[in-house]
Design goal:
Low-confidence stretches: 64-73
Structural class: alpha/beta
Helix content: 25-40%
Number of strands: 13
Strand content: 25-35%
Number of helices: 10
Strand order of the largest sheet: 10-9-8-13-11-12
Order of helices and strands: EHEEEHEEHEHHEHHEEHEHEHE
Mean pLDDT: 82
Largest sheet: 6 strands, mixed
Shape: globular
Oligomer: single chain
């Protein structure tokens, strides 16, 4: 079957951190996840924007929680946050099975945030020109193998609150100004290296990015930050200096769901070669 932008929709949840997607593409839909502070519940990006969220998060004694609602669509690719990081993939698959048939293709992207949005953009480029389901599946598998992703957190406090690391380790890391360089591989968050200070972290970003890429218009880049626009801007300037022909596809703020575990000050960097 020939897939086009007229007969194929793309659905993301709000963890893709691409709130303007529906304004750019008529065939895209964003399903907001929910974030709960105490007894109050908010739809991510809709009722609780990033600025207000990070203001609340800094003073919260307990982390907010999230849950997902997925509406039914016809003939869609539903791209989900890694199933190893969230239950949204299982929820989306259950909803698709209730529809029956093969109208909904639920994809475990094995990644998060702007990396999900970048895969969606690559799919959109193909369906705008006409493509097939087989070509899209090949793209998805190549994306999982080849995309680059690095991020670092400003403080280990929120990883500790979320149970990702012990509190003693978090306290020691903060005293020593340790900045973990992290990635997502096979759907899991994994450590790459530990450095001291934001400057060293940036140096690691530059090294990995330049060693793994060439300067070409097909190089696609995404940047995401958690209430740290100056760090995002530093990454944008680095890309322009090191890979001037690359296309920066998205610069976005991490929403409430992903930002809950990463915390304010986090910055993420994503790249994929797709001519």
């Amino acid at each position: 079957m020939q897939l086009t932008a007229e007969n194929t929709a793309i659905v993301l949840d709000s963890t893709a951190d691409f709130p303007e997607a529906q304004e750019r593409f008529a065939n895209w839909r964003i399903v907001p996840l929910y974030v709960r502070f105490g007894d109050e519940s908010f739809r991510d990006y809709v009722e609780l924007g990033p600025a207000e969220f990070y203001t609340r998060l800094r003073s919260a004694t307990e982390l907010p929680t999230a849950y997902e609602e997925l509406a039914a669509y016809e003939h869609i690719y539903s791209l989900q946050l890694s199933s190893k990081l969230s239950g949204t993939f299982g929820s989306a698959r259950t909803a698709a099975e209730e529809l029956g048939g093969d109208r909904v293709r639920v994809v475990d992207t094995e990644t998060a945030s702007a990396a999900v949005a970048m895969l969606a953009l690559a799919i959109e480029r193909r369906i705008e020109g006409g493509t097939t389901d087989e070509e899209i599946q090949e793209l998805i598998e190549r994306y999982k193998r080849e995309n680059g992703l690095l991020f670092t957190v400003d403080t280990l406090e929120f990883l500790a609150k979320g149970g990702r690391i012990g509190r003693a380790k978090a306290m020691a890391g903060q005293l020593l100004n340790i900045k973990p360089i992290l990635t997502i591989s096979d759907g899991e968050v994994l450590p790459v290296k530990r450095v001291r200070g934001n400057q060293k972290a940036m140096q690691e970003f530059v090294r990995d990015f330049t060693e793994g890429t060439v300067d070409n218009p097909g190089l696609r880049v995404g940047i995401a930050h958690a209430d740290a626009p100056e760090r995002a801007e530093a990454l944008r300037k680095m890309v322009r200096a090191e890979r001037p022909h690359a296309q920066i596809e998205i610069v976005t703020t991490l929403g409430a769901v992903v930002g809950t575990h990463a915390g304010p000050g986090t910055v993420g960097f994503f790249w994929f070669f797709d001519p």
